[in-house]
Each structure stands twice: as structure tokens, then as C-alpha cells.
Design brief:
The chain is an alpha/beta fold. The protein contains twelve helices and 13 strands. The chain has a domain at 14-196 and 233-261: NAD(P)-binding Rossmann-like Domain (Rossmann fold). The protein has helices spanning 14-17, 30-41, 58-61, 78-86, 102-107, 109-129, 164-183, 206-215, 235-246, 269-280, 305-311, 319-333; strands at residues 21-25, 45-50, 69-72, 92-95, 136-140, 187-192, 194-196, 221-222, 229-230, 232-234, 258-261, 267-268, 288-289. The protein starts with 13 loop residues before the first helix and ends in a 6-residue tail after the last helix.
Length: 339
């Protein structure tokens, strides 16, 4: 199994990925859309697993859908995944598909468990059955998998999610480790902080929700008390992180391991909202603090020292730069708006 050249400080070289056949589950999501862009730019042949067509997704808006092989279906269906891997002869799998909204999981946990847990074991079992094809697998976990414990989270800490979304990510993470330890599957796990960037259409999230409100000249809406602490990482840095991890799976120090990806600069939600207001020139619109968040851990942030040391990865975007690009994406998407 050969390494693919990759550094988080620069774009992937085309030579490394040219001709690789990469299955991306969750290709229409925010991270999936930007990851597909980078893979295509690097010369990979992308197989995109798509549950529902969504013309608002960046994957469709950009036209990238026309440059990929598209498999329609759900990760909960084993045979859809078997077709995606076997028929398309994929050698690399990056598993992003999940139900990602904490509030949705809290209101209706069963579909979240089905997608996030069953979907993960289905995919890993397909990869186990087709070991002759699949050479590298990256599974997207989350900082939420750690549950509530000492900060910053480090990879050697136990996974102890308590609420439905956290538990679903803890389980998927542990299942991935099990398939490596038991069957030698070439898998690694990525745990990211809060990802922001253009293409996130879940308006309940703080970044897209705040930008949309400010573009409409309205007060931004904060579900918590504004003092919850998180780390925020730009989606383009996350896409490069997944490629960095996939590219190093031949390294025994990497294969079977989990890696945190973070900018290392945690901040309160209110501070993030103020940063967005500064970028948009909307400091006069006072945030509407609702303090109604449920089933969420108050403070969460990660140490990414392991990724820096073993992968040579580091974020390329400062918060202000990432937010500026993000605001421009939404300004275009929402038809201009006013500040």
C-alpha cells in the first residue's frame, strides 16, 4: 500500500492522486462538496454516494456532479455500498455520510443511530469483503465522540458520548477501530472541531445562520447563552485534512489511528458571532440570545498536535480569512443581501 504525497500546507500534487478511484459518501454535504473539488483537481476519479439530489448543494451548483460517477442510495443499505465499491472498483474510501445535526438527533435519535452507526458498519464490512480493491479508508468522526471530559481533547482519551448524537459518533469511531484491530482493515479516523464554510445549508448552525440574518439586516440568533466554547475550522482545511490522512495510510504510525483536526484557537460562540459581524460590517445588530440549547456539551475543543507531527498537517486559513470567503459564498448564494 503506497503513500500518496500530501501536505496540509499546500495543495495536493496531481501526481499523487491521478487515476485513484475514490468513493466519497455524503458527497453533497458541505465537507463532501469541497473534498470532491480537491480530489477532482488532484486528478482522482470520484465516485459520489448521493442520498437525495439537492440543487442547492455546492456539489451540484458547481457542476462537479457532472465530473463524478454518482451512486444514488443510503449508507443504511448494504447493497448500495457494495455496488459503489465493487462495481466502481474504488481503491480509496472517505466516509462522510451521516446525520450531523445535534438537535435533530436529540428530537429523533433512531434515524441518527441508523445512519451514523449502521451506515459505518455497513461500509466497513463492504470494504472487508473487498480487501483486494480497497487500500485506504478514512472515517469521519467528530469531537462530539469524546463526550464531556478534560480539555483539550486528545486522541488517547476514552470515547464517552452520552447524548444521542455523541453516542452515534462514539460508536462509529469504535467500530472503525474494531475493523482495523480484528481484520487489519486500512482505516484511520478523523475527528474535527466545528466545521464552517460555504455550502452549509443547515441554518440552525451558528455560522450560516448568523450570516443569513446579517445579510437580511436582522439580529443574529444564538441558541445557547453565547458562552459555549468551541474550536472552528474552515472547510477547505478539513478537505485537505482528509486527503492528508488518506495519503498516509501506508504508514504504520497512521493506519488504525485517530487524528484530531483543529485550528487550536477555541472561542466562545459570542466571540465567533462578533468576528462574523466584523467581517460583514454589522456590529450594530445586537445578537438575540435565546439560551435554549439542549443536549449539547458546554465546552469542546481539540488538540491537533498529533496531526501536525505525523501528517505534517496544519490549517492554512486564519479565522478572518475563512469567514471572509464564507460570507462571499453566502452573499452569492442568497442573491446579494444587504449588510
Amino acid at each position: 500500500m503506497e503513500d500518496l504525497e500530501m501536505s496540509g500546507t499546500k495543495k495536493t500534487s496531481g501526481k499523487s492522486w491521478t487515476g485513484r478511484r475514490v468513493l466519497v459518501t455524503g458527497a453533497t454535504g458541505m465537507v463532501g462538496s469541497w473534498l470532491v473539488k480537491d480530489l477532482l483537481s488532484a486528478g482522482a476519479h470520484v465516485v459520489a454516494l448521493v442520498m437525495d439530489d439537492d440543487p442547492q448543494s455546492e456539489f451540484y451548483r458547481s457542476g462537479d456532479v457532472n465530473r463524478c460517477a454518482v451512486v444514488n442510495g443510503r449508507v443504511e443499505d448494504f447493497w448500495t455500498l457494495e455496488r459503489a465499491v465493487n462495481l466502481h472498483e474504488t481503491d480509496t474510501v472517505i466516509h462522510l455520510a451521516a446525520q450531523t445535526i445535534v438537535g435533530v438527533a436529540h428530537r429523533m435519535p433512531l434515524p441518527t443511530m441508523e445512519a451514523n452507526i449502521r451506515g459505518t458498519w455497513n461500509l466497513l464490512e463492504v470494504c472487508r469483503l473487498h480487501r483486494g480493491l480497497v487500500k485506504r479508508i478514512v472515517v469521519a468522526s467528530s469531537d462530539k465522540a469524546y463526550g464531556e471530559q478534560r480539555l483539550p481533547y486528545k486522541e488517547d482519551q476514552p470515547l464517552q458520548g452520552r447524548h444521542p448524537y455523541e453516542v452515534s459518533k462514539s460508536c462509529a469511531d469504535l467500530i472503525s477501530t474494531s475493523y482495523h484491530v480484528t481484520y487489519g482493515l486500512p482505516v484511520a479516523i478523523a475527528r474535527c472541531g466545528n466545521v464552517y464554510g460555504g455550502g452549509d445549508l443547515n441554518w440552525s448552525r451558528i455560522v450560516p445562520g448568523t450570516i443569513r440574518s446579517l445579510l437580511a439586516g436582522k439580529r443574529p440568533y444564538i441558541r445557547s447563552d453565547g458562552r459555549f466554547v468551541r474550536d472552528y475550522i474552515y472547510v477547505k482545511d478539513v478537505a485537505q485534512a482528509y486527503m492528508a490522512l488518506a495519503g498516509r495510510l501506508a504508514d504504520r504510525r497512521v493506519c488504525g489511528q485517530a487524528f484530531n483536526f483543529s485550528d487550536g484557537k477555541p472561542m466562545a460562540v459570542m466571540s465567533l458571532v462578533r468576528a462574523i459581524q466584523k467581517v460583514m460590517g454589522c456590529a450594530h445588530l445586537r445578537p438575540d440570545i435565546r439560551n435554549e440549547a439542549r443536549g449539547e456539551i458546554r465546552d469542546q475543543y481539540l488538540s491537533a498536535r498529533k496531526a501536525r507531527r505525523l501528517l505534517g498537517w496544519r490549517p492554512r486559513y486564519a479565522l478572518a480569512d475563512g469567514l471572509a470567503e464564507t460570507v462571499e459564498w453566502y452573499r452569492s448564494f442568497l442573491g446579494g443581501g444587504r449588510a
